[in-house]
Amino acid sequence: MTTETKEPLHIPAGHGVAAELIAVLVAVISEAPHIMTIRDARALPSGPFESSHRSLQSGLREWVEQQTGHPIGYMEQLYTFADRDRGEADKRTISISYLGLTREESRADARDSEWRDWYDYFPWEDHRKGTPELFEAVVAPRLRQWADEAPGKAARADRWQRAAITFGLDEFAWNEELVLQRYELLYEAGLVTEAERGQKPVLPGRAMLADHRRILATGIARLRAKIKYRPVVFELMPPAFSLLQLQRSVEALAGRLLHKQNFRRLIEQQELVEETGLSSFETGGRPAKLFRFRQAVLAERAAAGTKLPLLRP
Amino acid sequence: MTTETKEPLHIPAGHGVAAELIAVLVAVISEAPHIMTIRDARALPSGPFESSHRSLQSGLREWVEQQTGHPIGYMEQLYTFADRDRGEADKRTISISYLGLTREESRADARDSEWRDWYDYFPWEDHRKGTPELFEAVVAPRLRQWADEAPGKAARADRWQRAAITFGLDEFAWNEELVLQRYELLYEAGLVTEAERGQKPVLPGRAMLADHRRILATGIARLRAKIKYRPVVFELMPPAFSLLQLQRSVEALAGRLLHKQNFRRLIEQQELVEETGLSSFETGGRPAKLFRFRQAVLAERAAAGTKLPLLRP
DNA sequence: CGCTATAATACTCACTTTGAGCATTTATAG
DNA sequence: CTATAAATGCTCAAAGTGAGTATTATAGCG
User: Fold this and answer.
1) For B300, which residue in chain A has the nearest alpha carbon?
2) How far is CA A172 from CA A153, A169, A250, B242, in A?
3) Is the pLDDT of residue B6 over 50?
4) DSSP annotation of B93
5) Which chain A positions have a beta carbon within 8 Å of B209's beta carbon?
6) Are strands B288-293 and B273-280 parallel, antiparallel or unpaired?
7) In order of start, what are the domains of chain B with their CATH numbers?
8) Which of A58, A146, B52, B66 is the most exposed place for a label (fewest CB within 10 A)?
9) What is the tens place of the pLDDT at every residue in A182-223?
């Protein structure tokens, strides 16, 4: 939808800026969440926005296909930010990031691109086997130390509260959605590599070029939030799947385990899936019925139900 | 948080693009939702992103203050899009839009800027007095007509279903969050002015320059969604307020009426507010206790509760 | 062939959260 | 003193959730 305007709203600025497109492309591969990477798994697929591109989305699709040989299915915009420090002095770069979901097709196109488990970059985000030992051993003590370094009692308490909330320490419950807040706090505390160039990282977890790891954190956070109120997981599933497979995928993304029976009840009562009539005999137990996603829900359920106490009409 | 990179990820594109910042600045004035406008209320505050700006956000703040004399409190990014059709041939414009919330201070700075009720632009969005007559009279019949114009039976049914869902026709319930979808559908159906330049609009509602009305729709939709799970309304309230005032503000934004007792229960059990000890005797009834927002919740409640059936640890 | 391990699937039950509404209290304006 | 307008309190049923227990269907094995 575009509108021509006879009178431009602004005189275009003299210098202009460079625009860059960046993709967080996600697939679930053997029950683990993966992202597409390039440059020895240290960067996300990206490239400049050019005048030949029809739109931001299509520009990004072109870059990703060119760099990874992999097409994107579902896409949504993540965030746009401007960097002061890169490139020429007077030239700013604007980066527009997108979240993309796809089914892995194992087209081993190489081209310096590869799928990587996203927990390689954020080991502290996987709580499927309970709270990682990392927490007791490193995260909590180091954050405590960082909090104690603050000048002033109030500032120390404040730092510790922030740490406790975002990492689920003390009485606070773990909240899997706070991926970005956690990364930024670790960055601020100097515990991840991008922060201290050349120094040995305090925490395990692969670093990335520029702020790509931060963008990845943004993407993970968005996806973890979104699976709760929109049927996006299905973009990551094969055409037919068992309910346990579906559950494992959600668990992989959320980084936590779910209650099996209640998970089924949720899926069924929301009528998100329908039976294919097929079964899978591959698990060694009772065969699982295979389901497919009910495309109709995309139309029916335009949005989630309200949380406001509405008045009847 | 910025990271220097010795090797830039990409060689900046030769031509570059122009970047524009646009604000949807909201305030609630006498129980009606308002937005800040410029140019005879036909445009949103905006201006080019320049190399002197420290960041996108601060650039936008500068423009808005300059154009309207009004500072912004809370801000969040809305969406970024690229337009082909504006400006020079080889020069693209990237527009980055923000949602801003503020308390109106009635600083009548004029300067060609003014607060306008957002329902001036979207009369069909206000359902506080029930479904507007507009629906029976114009919206429904015109959408029916538009649906019937589609080639092929399937396409006709499809169009009508989309219309029914987004506008709450037939059996579908009204969903106040679908502001953008509704505007885009009306645009597609040729019922709003930006679409048919020079023609008389079929629907009432003030048009805007370029795609500013679409950006406004995006902002309203975001805000209507967000008030349900984040305490953002308080950014729009005075320091002390009664619960009914608070309710009226939410109703103004959502465009629907709420159940009074249940609304209070919600606010109270979530401990969003605390008593100030003061009362308001201005309403002619029993005096209302005045409350203030509990700043602490911003820290405590980092995010909403889960909707996934978690397994206990 | 019957036994065992592994899942899938079914059903239960207490508890919490909502939607809807009635009832009571405390003001102001005549 | 009375009518009116709110504010505030309280109840109750229905729906939604968390946490289990119980039953059914396969494959693999001795």
Assistant:
1) A165
2) 21, 6, 23, 31
3) no
4) E
5) 5, 9
6) antiparallel
7) 18-120 (3.90.79.10), 129-205 (no CATH), 237-300 (1.10.10.10)
8) B52
9) 999 999 999 997 765 666 778 999 999 999 999 999 999 999
